[in-house]
Specification:
Low-confidence stretches: none
Strand order of the largest sheet: 2-1-3-4-5
Structural class: alpha/beta
Mean pLDDT: 97
Distance between the termini: 28 Å
Number of strands: 5
Order of helices and strands: HEEHHEHEEH
Shape: globular
Helix content: 25-40%
């Protein structure tokens, strides 16, 4: 999660919402990304999406069933869909997102009968740090 926080801080430094994601395979970080929708002019450039794309490219395959995803905020519906399609084995996230999250909030994507893959899910890891980083980011923007 430390690496995901690093990526989140880097994203904030670029004026992006401070969210970071890391893909780990066999104990090795193989991809790391921060949010970049504004920088890349791409609404799909969430940290999770960028990290999953980079990991798939590095491994040369679309299925990441032996990989874990660490992210600083509960994934949205788009990212949850990508996690399912990539067959991520385990999802670890820091802060819950009652407004935009889709794992334990909103559509609860992985609990839907139409979801074809459900990763193991671990939440609350570094939650206070992630929540503080997000609060500070938005407070400074107001």
């Amino acid at each position: 999660m430390r690496a995901a926080f690093e990526a989140a801080r880097a994203a904030a430094g670029q004026g992006e919402v401070p969210i970071g994601a890391v893909v780990v395979c066999n104990g090795e970080v193989i991809a790391m990304a921060g949010n970049a929708p504004r920088t890349l002019h791409d609404p799909t450039a969430h940290a999770e999406m960028l990290a999953i794309r980079a990991a798939a490219s590095r491994l040369g395959r679309d299925r990441l069933e032996d990989c874990d995803l660490w992210v600083t905020l509960e994934p949205c519906a788009m990212c949850a869909g990508a996690i399912a399609h990539a067959r991520i084995a385990r999802l670890y996230y820091a802060a819950s997102d009652p407004k935009g999250g889709a794992v334990e909030h909103g559509p609860r994507f992985f609990a839907q009968p139409t979801c074809h893959h459900r990763p193991e899910i671990y939440s609350g890891i570094g939650e206070a740090e992630a929540a503080e980083m997000l609060r500070n980011f938005f407070r400074d923007r107001r």
